[in-house]
Structure formats: structure tokens, C-alpha cells
Amino acid sequence: MCTVGYGDVNPATILGKTFGMIVVVVGVLVIALPVTVIGSNFSVGFNKEEADREMAEKKLLVDERRRLAEEAALMRESVSGSETSSPNFSRLQSLNDDGDSPAVPNRA
């Protein structure tokens, strides 16, 4: 049975009860349909923002890796032309590798 107002008055005729039922169904539809549309649009927008944020983070990682690779290439270039390629450095390196003269003397 449908009630109108505070429940102290309710429809008595078939026409009144039918009208009350229609009002209840329309009221539910008026609330339910916009909620699903708004919820769906919110979900689409939220997922788009999240995908954009993840893409920006990946772009930052790629840029950082590219920058580090460029720095490493520059360091390799600077090292290849520096004193490590000189004959004196090679001679010093071979002396350290012999094992006869340790880099740090043993203190016993």
C-alpha cells in the first residue's frame, strides 16, 4: 500500500493507488538513471586522468634514462681521450696488476 505525506493519509481508490505506484516508479527512475550516467562519466574521466598521469610518469622515466645514457656517453668520450689511455697510465696499471707490489702494503 502506498502512503501520501506522513502516512496518515493513503489512497483508497484503484486510480489513486495506481497513480501512487507510477509516482514511485518514476521517482526511482528519475534518481537512478542520472546517477548511473554521472557515475559512468566519472569513471571514464577518472580512468583517462589516471592513464595520462601514468603516461607522464613513463615519459619522465624515459627522459631520465636518455639523460643518463647521454651522460655516460660523454663520460666515455672524455675518458677515452684522457690520461687513462696514455702509455704512462698503462705502465702504472701493469705494475699494480703484477701482484709483486700491492697497492696497499700489508701491515702485520
From TrEMBL:
Region listing for Disordered, in residue ranges: 75-108
Cellular component GO terms, alphabetical: voltage-gated potassium channel complex
GO molecular function: voltage-gated potassium channel activity
Domain spans labelled Ion transport: 1-44
Pfam families assigned to the protein according to its UniProt record, in alphabetical order: Ion_trans
Gene3D superfamilies: 1.10.287.70
Keyword Manganese annotated: no
Membrane topology: Multi-pass membrane protein
Transmembrane segments: 19-38
Main location: membrane
A biological process term (GO) from this entry: action potential
Entry protein name: Ion transport domain-containing protein
Organism annotation: Micromonas commoda (strain RCC299 / NOUM17 / CCMP2709) (Picoplanktonic green alga)
UniProt keywords, alphabetically: Ion channel, Ion transport, Membrane, Potassium, Potassium channel, Potassium transport, Transmembrane, Transmembrane helix, Transport
